[in-house]
Amino acid sequence: MSRRHICYLTGTRADFGLMASTLQRIEQHPALDLSLIVTGMHLSEQFGFTAREVEAAGFDIQSRIPCDMRHVDGAQMAVNIAVVLQGCVQSLMVRRPDLLLVLGDRGEMLAATLAAVHLGIPVAHVHGGERSGTIDESVRHAISKLAHIHLVSTVQARERLIQMGELSEYIHVVGAPGLDGLTALELPDRSSLCCSAGLDPEGRVALLVFHPVLQEAASAGEQMRVVAQALRNSGYQVLALMPNADAGNEAVREVLESARAADFVLKTHLPRADFLAWMACVDVMIGNSSSGIIEAASFGTPVVNVGSRQNMRERNANVHDVPIDSHSLGLALRQVSIRDKGPYQNIYGDGRAADRIAELLAHVPLSPSMLDKCNAY
User: Fold this and answer.
1) Contact in structure between 312 and 234 (CB atoms under 8 Å)
2) H helices within the chain, ranges in order?
3) Looking at the DSSP assignment, which residues form a beta bridge with residue 10?
4) What three-state secondary structure class fits 71?
5) What is the pLDDT of residue 340?
């Protein structure tokens, strides 16, 4: 029996970090072969050229598709979808995989999915069926309507896909891949971690991850300024990650750069293990990253989730939703403390998604009729 070739597209440090353990499990599976298409922020020096991490992991890189990441606005985001679409068509035609694997809601995932379905290649989608508001939710649902196999994180996500007309037999609850391996991590102690960044371990420390929202790009800088000022006013030292390459990111970067001298330590990128270590040790995580919604609960870390970017996504008990205004942010930051540390039960799974995904990809039937999608209603 021939091995089944799975191709995964990765465009950001985030999706690669979430899927790393799953990709390793796929590569190790006796019935599967794995290759990767690398694109987006991975190939930009401005965003840390994180393709180096993909290379260092030893995966078979099928192709690289560079995009213009210098001055990204809504128009450039749309153009980059077209660039990735064209590149994926060329790549997938040369090495036709048995199945394309994508995650989440970014434009490059949509582009790869469009290329695959037009070439008659089945698509498996991870993290479909979730709500998050903004353009992200629309892109996520668009991918789900194109995909043939759904690898979802929660029962609610499965039920939502069924309501969208997807066939129940192709929807599998596997949990969130980002939880895999968290309980087994050997974490550095808070003191050594803080000292390595020049922060006082005895003081309050916040991890800040804030990404602009496309529909709110014009106000992204002001939103970041309000969040940064609230952190200063509340006496927090801050380790901040630079934002994704979405419209409004330059304004967010300018605010963060101006805050660098005021107890803000800025990082273009943190390797996955380092990012998780910081998430586990800080007093609070603040911003609008899905990692605060999904992974942080496994460490018991309180999260102040700001604005609309994660609107309506299923929450764990550690998440405090706050509008972006000085009073609300100040109140939330004063209320959260080390006493809020969990443990919390994580609704996104038990940390064994990789095993489930690899087995499903190895054994799920890939019949020609699968490509003839129609709504179940």
Assistant:
1) no
2) 13-28, 51-56, 74-94, 107-118, 134-146, 155-163, 190-196, 220-233, 249-259, 272-281, 290-294, 326-335, 353-363
3) 38
4) coil
5) 62
**In the prediction, which pLDDT does 1 show?**
61
Contact criterion met (CB below 8 Å) for 166 and 150:
yes
What separation in angstroms does the CA of 246 have from each of 15, 70, 242?
Answer: 15, 11, 11
* CA-to-CA separations, 179 to 58, 80, 174, in angstroms, rounded: 22, 30, 11
The per-residue pLDDT for range 311-364, each reduced to its tens digit, is 989 999 999 999 999 999 999 998 886 556 767 889 999 999 999 999 999 999
- The overall average pLDDT reported for the chain is 94
Report the phi/psi class of residue 165: left, alpha or beta, with left for phi > 0 and alpha for psi in -120 to 50: left
Residues 72/75/80/81 CA torsion (nearest 10 deg) = 130
Which H helix or E strand runs over 36?
strand 32-39
Task: Specify the pairing of strand 237-241 against strand 149-152.
Answer: unpaired
Concatenating the DSSP letter of every residue in 296-328 gives GGGGT--EEEESSTTTT----TTEEEE-SSHHH
Within a 10 A sphere around the Cβ of 331, how many other Cβ atoms?
Answer: 13
What are the backbone angles phi and psi of residue 330, rounded to the nearest 5°?
-60, -45
Cα-flanking dihedrals φ and ψ of residue 211, to 5°? -115, 140
The answer to whether 140 and 105 have CB atoms below 8 angstroms apart is yes
Residue-level pLDDT at 376: 83
**Which residues 6+ apart lie within 8 Å of 335 measured at CB?**
320
Contact 290, 307 (CB under 8 A): no
pLDDT computed for residue 144 by the predictor: 98
Cα separation, 77 vs 69, in Å, equals: 9
Q: Using pLDDT thresholds of 50, 70 and 90, give the confidence band for residue 58.
A: very high
